[in-house]
Design brief:
By secondary structure, this protein is an all-alpha fold. Helix content is 73%, strand content 0%. It contains 13 helices and no strands. It has helices spanning 3-12, 20-28, 35-55, 62-69, 73-76, 83-106, 113-130, 132-141, 147-173, 182-194, 196-199, 205-221, 236-260.
Length: 261
């Protein structure tokens, strides 16, 4: 008897004879490499995401997920033990995976801070564009997250913020980005990118990429220097030079406004 069969036996007790749907699901659940199992797991995750986003985690039952997926509840147990397991997977996909991707980009020695920021912002924007339901459900269910899942979630959020702060600090030191507060700037970039989950309709990969690229460009141009002073030394002298650059830009805007008036 396999471990899956052993685990399933007590859960099926008292539930009657398994249906044809159950039998098909059990056969498909034989191994995790089974294509049918992968397809059913994907459907379960999609329906769980939708239901958690619409109803909230606490108000969604395993029976709701089984009904939406076309399985009976006994069959569902061959793919997932409980709601917490589903939510844990969704949190991992939504926060842990992006955090690891950002760290990988940030560690690339062949990229400068500007290109790193572009790739990081694009990657997160595309991730949000292709799965907005995942983000919405976590936001809606944040107060209901079990303690262990909440801990993972908050750790991953801090990791994402840390990676953006890191690249912005690097850009400021290199003279490629304006001397802003790195944490405030990082939160601004993340907020702009995350908002995509509330207005973008996924499904068209080309459009998803176009939206992600545009948001990344907007994030980048909010921080980069128009005329980087890489030759200026670190410290007060460089800060003064950058302030003069900003003042010159402000003067040009005032002159243009006066001419138009």
């Amino acid at each position: 008897m396999t471990s899956e069969e052993a685990a399933a036996r007590p859960r099926s007790r008292g539930r009657g004879k398994l249906t044809t749907t159950d039998q098909d699901a059990i056969e498909g659940a034989a191994t995790r490499s089974n294509p049918r199992r992968e397809l059913v797991e994907k459907q379960i995750m999609e329906q769980a995401t939708r239901l958690f986003a619409e109803k909230g985690f606490a108000s969604t039952t395993l029976q709701d997920i089984a009904d939406a997926t076309g399985l009976t509840r006994p069959a569902l147990y061959h793919y997932v033990a409980n709601k917490d397991e589903l939510l844990s997977r969704l949190v991992s996909e939504s926060t842990e995976t992006p955090a690891a991707l950002l760290h990988e980009i940030n560690d690339r020695p062949d990229l400068g801070p500007t290109e790193k920021l572009r790739q990081m912002a694009t990657a997160i924007a595309l991730h949000q564009a292709q799965g907005p339901d995942r983000f919405r459900l976590i936001i809606r269910s944040e107060a209901e997250l079990p303690e262990d899942i909440a801990t993972t979630y908050h750790h991953s959020r801090r990791h994402v913020l840390k990676e953006f702060i890191r690249v912005i600090e690097e850009g400021i030191r290199a003279g490629e980005m304006r001397p802003v507060d790195p944490r405030t700037a990082a939160l601004g970039v993340i907020g702009m990118i995350n908002w995509i989950a509330w207005w973008h309709q996924p499904g068209d990969l080309e459009n998803d990429r176009a939206v992600a690229n545009q948001l990344a460009d907007m994030a980048l141009h909010s921080l980069i220097q128009e005329n980087p002073h890489t030759e200026t030394s670190e410290g007060p002298a460089r800060a003064i030079a950058l302030l003069r650059q900003d003042l010159n830009y402000l003067e040009r805007l005032l002159d243009e406004s006066t001419e138009l008036g």
